[in-house]
Amino acid sequence: MINNFNYKIVVFLMGVLLLVNGGFMLLSSLISLFSNDGFVEKITISSLIVISAGFVFLFFGRGYEKQIQKREGYLIVTLGWILMSITGTIPYIMTGVIPQFSSSFFETMSGYTTTGATIIEKIDSLPKGILFWRSTTHWIGGMGIIVLAIAILPFLGIGGTQLFSAEAPGPASDKLHPRITDTAKRLWLIYLTYTIVQAILLYIAGMTIFDAVNHAMSTISTGGFSTKSESIAFWNDKPLIQYIIIIFMFLAGTNFVLSYFAFTRKFQKIIQDEEFKLYTRFIIFFSFLVIVFNLLSQNLPADSILNRLEPTFRNAIFQVVSIITTTGFITYDFTQWTPLITIIFFGLMFLGGSSGSTSGGVKIVRHMLMIKTGFLEFKRALHPNAIIQSRYNSKTVNESISFNILGFFILYMLSFIVGSIGFGIFGADFDSSLGLAASTLGNIGPALGSFGPSHSYASLSEIGKLWATFLMLLGRLELFTVLILFTPFFWKKNY
């Protein structure tokens, strides 16, 4: 075991995260109070339990060394997500909304990892305090619990670079400010601004203020929890609401650094960003395919096609953006279109949004660099003595990044295969197993088969739910952060 491991800093920061969790839970109790849903006392008690636990962790973690190494960073992030999810189950259990731990743990992990899969079938009947808590778990998890912690670490005298790199692994390294804590603060300011603006626009478009706030929190986090059992299909008669959500899903799936560039009027950097251009092209291309295949499958006369064009266009682009950004909102069950369209959406589950966004999945930049590397191998085959290097945004891509991306993709596909086999063992059929693994690992929400967009995860076995929560965590922290804890050399001294 590691003798020089800084355990106290791990314990102390678990306490900080619990205080954050309990504070947001207390905010949910205020919503319960104002809505008079009858659960304010139980949600308040839940909050006080979590806050008390936070102070206990702070007490036992006092006297920590003010330095976080890579090992501590990985452990803090993974344990932080698990601990937040475990304590996040308390309001569900206390109120009796989800009395079973495995189900409430599934729902909470789905919230924090912004997966949006739910075991609740009658969402409309939930008390508003609980509905707000579900959306809050999305909102906290979207930008990252750990990034929030980084923003307050200067007040504790702790450096947060290792936490940031562990929580947001991947090839992108753009920063808004040379100090990591200032970066975290700017990210949260953009995140909060988008949430407020979208909530206002949704309210103007016809949602209640409660629904508007909840859906803004779910959209910006690319989460997918709704206050309605029908998800966004509830507002199919209000196209403006759906177009607003499309726009903000697109923004949430874009690198937040580009949003900062937009706010500072550095538009040229946005236009020149290769990932952003490919991300936009993917959305346009696949939306076009879904629209064409959908219209052709309906065998409508020319005059009827014109009448169906707008809703077909809206549903197609909504679902394409929703799946690519891993938000998971639904306006139409895409598995009810043609089998070819279902296959397209299954493939989209492996795309993911941009790096530096709140989206899950593989991420566009990884696909781009893998494609570039593939073409470079063709060139090297023809010109074996030539020095050919991959470039991204006019910069040479280091070989270590290419190896990291290749390793990630191999691990991702292996995790998908093992995840599918696991769901098969736990009782799911073939289509459902593939859909469940792709959806939970990619943090998407809707799956295929018995767990498609029109169905909840309630029928999943208890052990299947726990397996799903593991895959959600694995996908949210992009594999390495979690899997490295299972390697023997992580725990060896001075490795």
- How many separate helices? 21
Cα gyration radius (Å): 22 Å
Total number of strands: 2
Strand order of the largest sheet: 1-2
Distance between the termini: 11 Å
Question: Biggest β-sheet, characterized?
Answer: 2 strands, antiparallel
Strand content: under 5%
Shape: globular
- The residue ranges in which pLDDT falls below 50 over 5 or more consecutive positions are none
Task: Explain the overall architecture.
With 495 residues, the chain is an all-alpha fold. It is 64% helix and 1% strand. The chain has 21 helices and two strands. It has helices at residues 7-35, 40-60, 70-87, 90-95, 101-112, 128-143, 145-152, 161-167, 180-205, 209-220, 239-252, 256-263, 267-272, 274-297, 302-324, 339-348, 364-382, 399-425, 430-441, 462-476, 480-483, and strands spanning 391-392, 395-396. It has a two-stranded antiparallel sheet.
What are the SSEs and their pairings?
Layout: H1 7-35, H2 40-60, H3 70-87, H4 90-95, H5 101-112, H6 128-143, H7 145-152, H8 161-167, H9 180-205, H10 209-220, H11 239-252, H12 256-263, H13 267-272, H14 274-297, H15 302-324, H16 339-348, H17 364-382, E1 391-392, E2 395-396, H18 399-425, H19 430-441, H20 462-476, H21 480-483
Antiparallel strand pairs: 1-2
Helix pairs in contact: 1-2, 1-3, 1-6, 3-5, 3-8, 5-6, 5-20, 6-7, 6-10, 7-9, 9-10, 9-11, 9-12, 10-11, 11-15, 14-15, 17-18, 18-19, 18-20, 19-20
Characteristic key phrases:
two-stranded antiparallel sheet; 21 helices; 1% strand; mainly alpha; globular; 495 residues
Summarize the model shown.
This protein is mostly helical and 495 residues long. Helices cover 64% and strands 1% of the residues. It has a two-stranded antiparallel ribbon.
